[in-house]
Amino acid sequence: MPYETGAKVKLTRDVQVTANDTAGRTGFPGPLCLAEGLEGIVTSSAKEAGGLAQEGLAEFERQVRGVQFDGFTAGVIDNLRQQIIQAGGAGAGVGAQIRYRVRFENGFVLGGLEEGWLTRA
Questions:
Q1: Which strand (E) or helix (H) includes residue 112?
Q2: How many degrees, rounded to 5, is the angle at CA 45 between CA 86 and CA 102?
């Protein structure tokens, strides 16, 4: 069931926020996770492209994962991410899925959450 912006949701499982090697470099003993049951508010959603665009986006994410960027650079990277998604828009029917961005009670904002990872709070 799709969630609208402003819907109150909670996680149905633990969600890892950092990669294992990233956590070690930032001083955390292991991967940082948000716990199952944590509540938040949906701030946006986007239908993800399937097929080749999805593969391109996954490769792009692998290349920039774990790197901290200043605000401007993060904005440019988000713009590139959106361009990759839009480029696959024509073939996005089969395999497309909705991903959500959620602001949690503890202040974390996490994007890319699958619908199955959330439930109504």
A1: strand 109-114
A2: 135
